[in-house]
Backbone:
């Protein structure tokens, strides 16, 4: 009897084998648990592989290096965040005035970073981390588009960079743990900064 099979579309990534999907999930679950139990300082791909019961080569092929593993751990939460600011309810999502959306976005970004602060700090301190790494590009495009609606004709690409600069994990961690600032204090400062930019 003829069995219907889905053929790959040219140019599209091949679907993953079930065992590869299981291994990926197992590796991510183990890495997340290790970070919760021991923090990010000692996170080693070799240890993750051992605890997940997979070969070290599997981890390296799948994620490349520790930075790749960290990016994968952040990915699921980042997808939800992006969905919220691109298509969710206002004021973060469409439907609110652009100046309100700018502030809602910056506040939500702080919450997003604080939720996985250790991972973000480790990623930012990584040798390979740079300003354009990870979701920064989409965050920048979104913020610049909103600023263009608020202040057309101004250098909104620069202004978006200026507003995103203080919303980085290392600075937020320093403000919270060394300066004793609360998340609300940080958001209040970002609000003042954004309002001065949008006048």
Residues:
């Amino acid at each position: 009897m003829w069995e219907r099979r889905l053929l790959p579309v040219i140019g599209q990534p091949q679907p993953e084998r079930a065992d590869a999907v299981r291994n990926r999930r197992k590796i991510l679950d183990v890495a997340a648990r290790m970070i919760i139990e021991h923090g990010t300082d000692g996170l080693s791909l070799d240890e993750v592989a051992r605890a997940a019961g997979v070969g070290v080569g599997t981890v390296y092929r799948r994620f490349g290096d520790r930075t790749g593993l960290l990016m994968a751990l952040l990915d699921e939460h980042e997808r939800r965040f992006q969905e919220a600011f691109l298509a969710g309810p206002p004021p973060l999502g469409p439907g609110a005035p652009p100046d309100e959306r700018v502030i809602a976005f910056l506040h939500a970004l702080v919450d997003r970073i604080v939720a996985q602060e250790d991972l973000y700090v480790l990623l930012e301190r990584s040798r390979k981390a740079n300003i354009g790494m990870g979701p920064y590009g989409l965050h920048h495009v979104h913020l610049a588009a909103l600023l263009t609606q608020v202040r057309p004709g101004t250098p909104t690409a620069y202004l978006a960079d200026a507003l995103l600069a203080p919303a980085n994990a290392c600075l937020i961690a320093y403000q919270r743990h060394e300066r004793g600032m609360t998340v609300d204090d940080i958001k209040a400062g970002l609000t003042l900064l954004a309002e001065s930019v949008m006048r």
Notes: The chain has two domains: 12-64, 75-198.
